[in-house]
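FIELD: query
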Amino acid sequence: MTQGSIAAVLEEAVGTARRHHFTAKTVTDALHRYGVEEVVTSGGGTRIPILMRILRSNATTERPRMIEGWGIPSEFTKAYAFAVLSLLRTFGVDKPETGGLKPATGLDACAQIHHH
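FIELD: result
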């Protein structure tokens, strides 16, 4: 390995570590700001040790739980979330008069679910 390629690998490693730290810090800041009492994690980030270590050390809860503990395989988290959002839409929970889904989705307006 050349000196230039070693420098490139180190630069990439430092950049990746910074992104993981920024991600974990952003999440834990939001947890504290909104008083979140329980954290359930899923997805590819759960397999990144530094990300999970920072999240655990700064979380508002004793220990973030993995989604698998609820019987939901991590790779199906997005499908499960959309199924729940669809169910809420079906029963009118996303209507403005019921508070809408903005707190959960960040949307400024109701989004329509279309079937093709």
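FIELD: remark
The helical segments are 3-33, 49-58, 77-90, 102-105.
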